[in-house]
Amino acid sequence: MIALLIQALGRPLLRLRYRIHREGKEPSPSKGGGGILFLATHPSLVDPFLLMSELRPRFAPLLVAGRDHAAPAPLRWLGRLMGARSLPDPAGYPPNGGDRCREALHAELMSLSRSLVLGRNLILFPGGRLARQKTEDLSDNSVVETLLRQAPGTRVVLVRLHGLWGSRFSAASGRRPALGLELLKSFVYLAANLGFFMPRREVRLSLEEVPDLPLDEGRQALNQALETRLNEGATPRTFVPYLVWKDHAPRTLPEPPRPRVEGNPRTVPPQVREAVRRHLQAVTGRTDIQETQALVKDLNLDAMDLRELELWIQRAYGYSCSDPAALQTVADLQLAATGAAVSLRQGELKAVPHAWFHSRTDLPIHMPEGDTILEVFLKQAKRDPRRVALADQTGGVKTYRDVLTAILVLKPLFENLEGTHVGLMLPASGGASILYLALLFAGKTPVLVNWTAGSRSMGYGLDLLDVKHVITVSTLINRLDAQGVDLSAVKPRLLLLDEVGKTIGLATKLKAAFRARFNWTTLLEAKPQETAAVLFTSGSESHPKAVPLTHGNILANIRDAAQALHFREDERVMGCLPPFHAFGLTTTTILPLLLGLRVVYHPNPTEGRMLARIIEAYHATLLVGTPTFLGGILRQAEDRHLESLRIVVSGAEKCPEPIYATLAKRWPKTTVLEGYGITECSPVVSVNREEDPRMGSIGKPLLSVEWAIVDMEKGRRVEPGQPGMLLVRGPSVFSGYLNADVDSPFETFEGRQWYRTGDLVYQDRGVLVFSGRLKRFVKLGGEMVSLPAIEEALSRRFQAEDETEPLLAVESSVEELNPDLILFSVAGIARDEANAVIRAAGLSSLHNIRVVRKIDQIPTLGTGKTDYRALKALLAEANT
After folding, report:
1. pLDDT tens per residue, range 450-468
2. Which candidate, 309, 325, 329, places its Cα nearest to that of 317?
3. Could you write out the DSSP letters of every residue in 391-411?
4. For the residues 639-666, what does the mean pLDDT come to?
5. What are the two backbone dihedrals, phi and then psi, of residue 811, each rounded to the nearest 5 degrees?
């Protein structure tokens, strides 16, 4: 009765928008024999209702819902009301319940086969999911073969729905439509057109009985035959106007790109590649798993297998694939385990709340006075607590009042933690910013934990500061565990915030919300530690050193940066750098909150495609990143993605010329401001100015930074244009390492104490130009040979533009006298070929490579920089 009611109401409504034409010779209903299996194309969400309204009067078919697990709840609910039968989904079973799910599927298919044998007709969408192209892909379908083998004599009728591709209920826009929203819009358009005058979409419904299917040739041959015949005459993406008085003529639109996983398989960590390979071996029973193999064609996986793989990736690595149709090869699956599959064009971003764009912007950008980060933050929040402060796709948009509420909830919890130093291990996110402030308000010193540094380095730093607790979330821990990251030094100290959050009652949250609105007394009375953060040097050259930065250090650096960069009232910052990196902590975690800039976060800086889409969605105007991460964004962005960017700030390593060239060609309105910084200097030392950017330079030192370029052998300043060691001093420079056994980084020069950067620079027409780290120079034949210069020459020749990870690195052997220059290469570059490139670049024969070593992957740090300490370790192992 309910199905009849839906049909009675749905058919007239459908006819108000769709003009349906029946084509082809209609088969006769089954009489006394087996049933008919209708196999239909699935271009839109209205297909089930349209087909049932057209076929029910004569054939009374039973609708079988396929594996489109992304179907919205209203659609599934309506399907059940219409008596539809759903095939089992592995998501409804425990992680190890694959066998149970297959048993349930087998039982359901047996039941459907019996229905066919008894003469019941079925409608099935063999593609299993809403079409992503105008044509159907049936390659992984195994249901049709099973039904036909279990119900011999079943008649097969192909149902082609032409004309629906491109409607608002299709995925032709590149994303899955939201059924409820689109239905609401449709009713609005119906009302605007007075119902009967709404422009009609021409739909052709053709039925074709096919008696000659190659069932005996196997599943792939059967699917190929069905796919070829179902896709005959497929219509292009067509837009049909919605208003009778506007845009009268339908028009053809461009087809969306095929879904695919973004990324370079070389970037997948070896342990992840191996874990995926082992899992596929267990699933398929095969040992010859290769990255280039197709999951369906080569490994013979079906829809259930692919769904289980998708769920395994989600459960093991924390990433949900936005469009499983993109998982075509073993390499795609490995990339999906690193989050690449959430960077698909079809992946839906959550809608950006209205408040993000219409937050109050009439307040001038300036940093209030104050001696601590907390004092400045509270003064900035007081200016307008309703103003948007930060956002991300997980937590949504947060105002200053929301941030204050969260701090008031967390502060008492953190005050009870043992010790003055508390670890914080989180990627770039709104939550990381809030937790950092909450620790300061609780009187703790945040210790930023870098999980990419390795277990030994993490354990060393935590033991050095006697850290008892490290705050993080279980999703990050699960993901790192699944990727094979060694967390043994951290796990005994973990405090999982999502678990702690379950113990916080509603009364506590309501009380915090009330106090955030009316009474901040406890926050105003907070007495923070003198040290605002402890970070660790990258360890690219030696053991990581503990760097304490005071409130005064960081505040001085932020004031200088604001004076140099001239932020605007409507600035929107894109933040992706992890807070364990000084560049990320200061510029995208603390600076926006203290200056009143809106910042949107994404946790993975290597997901270039997703970052580009977030920049577009949030209309970001300022992007801060390292060249490695910036290059990934530029390579994977479409032109429209970065149109809102006004400034790109590059730091942490030399910005290569291709980044300048790409931005100048594709986004000429965007200015690149390259800078230079050091963790010990909070971190920015110099940066180019918007009014006078100089490509290849690191700009002018910040206002409060005193500097000197010194010839260390002669103990005096060098002449302008000559390279020398950069010495700096000022309020943003730290006071010394916390490691008791580390040599002092300070140098007495001209009667005053300076911080020795270890970097060589020279002055060129009023700006500084970076020459390289002193430790990256080798003395050969009495001449200082620059290893970065060799790398740059070789990279221009061997590093392709679409590569997001380094393919080569140059290091010297451990001998102090006349060391060998060693080229580490992923591509297996020949020594003679490398030296020919070096000579062509104008470098002397002293720069020639003496040894070439081929390795699977160039080791990198969390910032994307090459991990030279790991390369030196490889050399040391080779010599033992």
Report:
1. 988 778 888 888 999 999 9
2. 309
3. EETTTEEEEHHHHHHHHHHHH
4. 90
5. -140, 160
Fold classified for 354-687:
Rossmann fold (3.40.50)
At 472, the amino acid letter reads T
Instruction: Provide the pLDDT for residue 671.
Output: 94
Place of tokens 């249901």: 143
> Angle 613-618-623 (CA atoms, 0-180°, nearest 5)?
75
C-alpha–C-alpha distance, residues 177 and 165, integer Å: 12
Residue 549 to residue 535: CA distance in whole angstroms: 8
Backbone phi, psi, residue 803, to 5°? -85, 130
Copy the structure tokens of residue 134: 């105008």
Euclidean distance between CA atoms 81 and 242, whole angstroms: 29
pLDDT at 69: 47
Do residues 633 and 661 touch, judged by C-beta distance below 8 A? no
Question: HEC states along 121-139?
Answer: CEEECCCCCCCCCCCCCCC
| Residue 776 binned pLDDT confidence (cut-offs 50, 70, 90) | low
Instruction: Decide: 61 and 121 in contact? Cβ < 8 Å.
Output: yes
For domain 781-879, give the fold.
GMP Synthetase; Chain A, domain 3 (3.30.300)
What one-character-per-residue DSSP string does 239-276 give?
Answer: E--S-TTS--S-EE-PPPPPP---S-GGGS-HHHHHHH
In this predicted model, what pLDDT tens digit does every residue of 276-309 receive, in sequence order?
A: 888 899 888 888 888 888 888 888 888 888 888 8
Q: Which CATH number among 1.10.1200.10, 1.10.8.420, 2.60.120.10, 1.10.10.10 corresponds to the domain 265-343?
A: 1.10.1200.10
User: Facing residues of 64 across strands?
Assistant: 85, 124
Angle between helices 551-565 and 373-383 (to 10 degrees): 50
Taking 3-state DSSP, the helix, strand and coil percentages for the chain, each rounded to the nearest 5, stand at: 40, 20, 40
The first and second tokens of residue 173, run together, are: 């826009």
Phi and psi, residue 340, nearest 5°? -65, -30
* pLDDT above 70: residue 310: yes
Residue 10, classified by CB atoms within 10 Å of its CB into exposed (0-12), middle (13-18) or buried (19+), is middle
Closest CA to 227 of 133, 152, 148, 301: 133
Q: What are phi and psi of 329, to 5 degrees?
A: -125, 170
Decide: residue 130, CB within 10 A, 0-12 exposed, 13-18 middle, 19+ buried: buried
Q: What is the 3-state secondary structure (H, E, C) of 195-221?
A: CCCCCCEEEEEEEEECCCCCHHHCHHH
CA atoms within 13 A on the CB side of 120: 14
* pTM to 2 decimal places: 0.66
Report which DSSP code applies to 766: T
- What is the C-alpha to C-alpha distance for residues 784 and 199, in angstroms, rounded to an integer? 76
How far is Cα 95 from Cα 316, in angstroms, rounded to an integer?
10
pLDDT in tens, 695-735: 989 999 999 999 999 987 788 898 888 888 899 999 999 99
Residues in Cβ contact with 415 at an 8 Å cutoff, skipping those fewer than 6 apart: 442, 443, 444
CATH T-level fold of 700-771: Luciferase; domain 3 (2.30.38)
H helices of 803-867, in order, are 831-840
Distance CA 395, CA 380 (A): 22
Pick the closest to residue 438 from 518, 502, 523, 499 (CA basis). 523
- pLDDT surpasses 90 at 574: yes
| DSSP SS3 for 367 | coil
Place of tokens 């020795």: 756
